[in-house]
Amino acid sequence: MYDQPRPNRAAPAMTFDQMLERVRYEGAYPTRERAEKAVRTVLAALGRQITGDERVDLAQCLPVEAALTLTAQIPAADRFTGWGFVKDLAERAGATPAVARWDTGAVLAVVARLAGPDLLARILRRLPDGYALLFGQAELCRPQMRAVAA
Question: Distance (Å, rounded) from C-alpha 25 to C-alpha 46?
Answer without folding.
Answer: 21
